[in-house]
Specification:
Number of helices of chain B: 0
Structural class of chain A: mainly beta
Order of helices and strands of chain A: EEEEEEEEEEE
Oligomer: heterodimer
Shape of chain B: globular
Shape of chain A: globular
Radius of gyration of chain A: 13 Å
Strand content of chain A: over 45%
Helix content of chain A: under 10%
Number of strands of chain B: 10
Strand content of chain B: over 45%
């Protein structure tokens, strides 16, 4: 199988602090991972593409200095929401693709971020 | 351009009836599409996919139709069950990078 694990599943933080979310591929190596954000009752919006060993590619309108992405190994990508504000409260979801099946996306279970 | 998510439309059906969920996509060059089911608080779950060289694909109780001319996808669920209640998204897949459609919330009445 292909399992992607996201941690934490939920987090509450104070406004102005930073939060790190981890996305791990447990049984395969993922050269590419993707980060999505989903507000309540809305669709998933792609934030960035995370490439192992290189800089992430951000979608238009996503602040790279606010949403720091690090993909330091073939099984781990992290998303850090810096100086979080209540408007950053959302559901963050990662996905990963296997090198031998790039079209297939395996999703983590998501992280519910609440900024108070 | 990209499909942008707005507030979800809803579809309410009676248990046992067939459901049809529609989706419009924006990129005429897209050649791979996927339907996902998302339950509250969880990540998307793969349902069925279709490539642009096909116009219909069937799975277990589900059928996807693709009309490239009008850039439209539909998901048909036969004999809808309460467990089918969820939000359904279509997505354009480009090498694992997904552009999601608006989504539809399906509610099944027993």
């Amino acid at each position: 199988g292909a399992v992607v694990s996201q941690h934490p599943s939920w987090v509450i933080c104070k406004s102005g602090t930073s939060v790190k979310i981890e996305c791990r591929s447990l049984d395969f190596q993922a050269t590419t991972m993707f980060w999505y954000r989903q507000f309540p009752k809305q669709s998933l919006m792609l934030m960035a593409t995370s490439n192992e060993g290189s800089k992430a590619t951000y979608e238009q309108g996503v602040e790279k200095d606010k949403f720091l992405i690090n993909h330091a190994s073939l099984t781990l990508s992290t998303l850090t929401v810096t100086s979080a504000h209540p408007e950053d409260s959302s559901f963050y979801i990662c996905s990963a693709s296997r090198p031998d099946s790039r079209d297939e996306a395996f999703f983590g279970q998501g992280t519910r971020l609440t900024v108070v | 351009g990209e499909s942008v998510g707005l507030h979800l439309p809803t579809l309410s059906v009676q248990e046992g009836d067939n459901s049809i969920i529609n989706c419009a996509y924006s990129n005429s060059a897209s050649d791979y599409f996927i339907w996902y089911k998302q339950e509250s608080g969880k990540g998307p779950q793969f349902i069925i996919d279709i490539r642009s060289n096909m116009d219909k694909r069937q799975g277990q109780r589900v059928t996807v139709l693709l009309n490239k001319t009008v850039k439209h996808l539909s998901l048909q669920i036969a004999a809808t069950q309460p467990g089918d209640s969820a939000v359904y998204f279509c997505a354009e897949n480009g090498g694992g990078k997904l552009i999601f459609g608006q989504g539809t919330e399906l509610s099944v009445k027993p």
